């Protein structure tokens, strides 16, 4: 006799599926589980420079937009046009300056710390690049003057910042509190400790006086007749 094999019954879930869904499920089961790692569009070094630069540019552009709107209102000109123009220029200048300065610092950095001279060089280069961008926006004739002027501004500004930050001083800075114009007297730790000791001695002396007064009052309450004799010695005669 021939054996008759009947097809296996599908499960209730597979039977309830649409044929298209069954095909997708079969493809998902047979597809390899591992996927290729996703590649970043830009290297992380560029992202670390671009993202802060765009943030700085956005903040400066927003400030420039408000300034341009105010200038347009004062000059009786279209404030929207002035706002867009000045906001775009400030965004381009600030973002290009910050990005180029970071690139220059990374290129000039020899160790972990950056020296003041390297900061001046990086700021001058960044100022020249920002001046080139600003000059290109205003017209080709303004590129060379923009590069020269912004390079000088960037280097000079960084030198002033270095002089303020890296100023060597053998003595600690007195500051405003130690000047004669300050309404507050500056005290060292030793002077403050001395004042506290003097106040503590005064408090101890006042406590001793109060204790003596309390003791005299208690003695007077315990011997009232003796106190009367001391006050009026002729009354007993």
Please specify the SSE layout and strand pairing.
Blueprint: H1 12-16, H2 19-30, H3 44-74, H4 79-108, H5 116-138, H6 143-165, H7 189-222, H8 224-231
How would you describe this structure to a colleague?
With 237 residues, the chain is mainly alpha-helical. Among the domains are: 44-165, no CATH class; 180-222. It is built from 8 helices and no strands. Helix 3 (44-74) runs antiparallel to helix 4 (79-108), helix 4 (79-108) packs antiparallel against helix 5 (116-138) and helix 5 (116-138) packs antiparallel against helix 6 (143-165). The longest helix is centred in the C-terminal third of the chain and has 34 residues, at 189-222. It is elongated, with a radius of gyration of 43 Å. The termini are far apart. 17% of the residues are buried. Residues 1-40, 218-237 are annotated as: Disordered. Residues 1-11 have a biased composition (Basic and acidic residues).
């Amino acid at each position: 006799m021939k054996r008759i094999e009947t097809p296996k019954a599908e499960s209730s879930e597979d039977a309830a599926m649409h044929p298209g869904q069954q095909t997708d499920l079969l493809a998902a089961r047979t597809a390899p589980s591992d996927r290729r790692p996703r590649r970043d569009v830009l290297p992380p070094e560029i992202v670390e420079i671009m993202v802060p630069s765009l943030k700085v540019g956005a903040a400066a552009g927003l400030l420039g937009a408000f300034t341009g709107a105010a200038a347009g209102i004062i000059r009786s000109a279209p404030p929207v046009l002035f706002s867009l123009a000045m906001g775009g220029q400030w965004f381009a200048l600030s973002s290009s300056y910050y990005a180029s300065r970071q690139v220059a610092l990374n290129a000039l950095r020899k160790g972990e710390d950056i020296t003041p001279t390297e900061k001046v060089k990086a700021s001058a280069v960044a100022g020249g690049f920002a001046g080139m961008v600003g000059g290109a926006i205003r017209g080709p004739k303004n590129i060379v003057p923009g590069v020269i002027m912004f390079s000088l501004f960037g280097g000079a500004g960084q030198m002033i910042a270095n002089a303020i930050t890296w100023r060597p001083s053998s003595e600690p800075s007195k500051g405003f509190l130690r000047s004669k114009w300050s309404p507050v007297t500056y005290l060292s730790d030793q002077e403050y400790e001395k004042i506290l000791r003097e106040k503590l001695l005064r408090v101890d002396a006042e406590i001793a006086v109060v204790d003596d007064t309390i003791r005299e009052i208690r003695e007077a309450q315990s011997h009232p007749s003796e106190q009367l004799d001391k006050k009026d010695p002729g009354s007993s005669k």
